[in-house]
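look at this fold:
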Amino acid sequence: MTGKPLVALAAAAEQVDGVPHVAVREVYVRALEQVSGCHVVVVGGPAPDLAHLVDRFDGVVFGGHQSNVLPRWYGGEPGSGPADADRDELALSVIPAALRADVPVLGICRGLQELNVALGGTLRNVPGHTEDLSLPRDEQYLPAHPVHLTEGGVLRRLLGEPSVEVNSLHHQAIDRLAPGLRVEAVAPDGVVEAASAEGAAFCLAVQWHPEWYAATDLVSVALFTGFGAAVAARAARRAVI
């Protein structure tokens, strides 16, 4: 294999003028291409065959979306928020397959929640963490609170700081941490803000949105650069097989 690493980016279901679409926000593609140095393939759910093809990629990314992970996947009470069952099925099948194949995984917002549920954890609703829609979009994604980084963790090594400031735009959060996951960051209110999979080459997910200022915010640059290094290493290994 030659050229840039190839990364699968999970899409979400959208309705545009009454027509079903699978879509991703351009900021994710731009961050992965320009900061992580990857080629991006957008994949929509449920895509049951993708779990069997995941080892053809150098990394997989599960970004944020306005929909919630359906409670039926983790034994929770039925909720009233927006849902995307196809995206759920995509994530819950591909994440374990990627970990088994040692394919790097990056999760953002919903992606952290999907990682936790895919490995057996649960979620809870967290009112008061959504964006202020009266503000311009660029201001909604500015830092809103600090998070403390776990000493010795993946995130602490990437960022080199004991705490950093992050934004806050989410409806759900981790309740019970899944077996095999390690807490990487915690907010002052106790919300788990990041987690990694123990023993994985690279599996890191954060609750905040680093993609919006991926090229200028130092925390975001470190995250996408770290993921880029992991997928580049996998691409190099595959090139000599």
User: Anything to note?
Assistant: The first strand starts at residue 6 and ends at 10. The chain has one domain: 6-239. The mean pLDDT is 92.
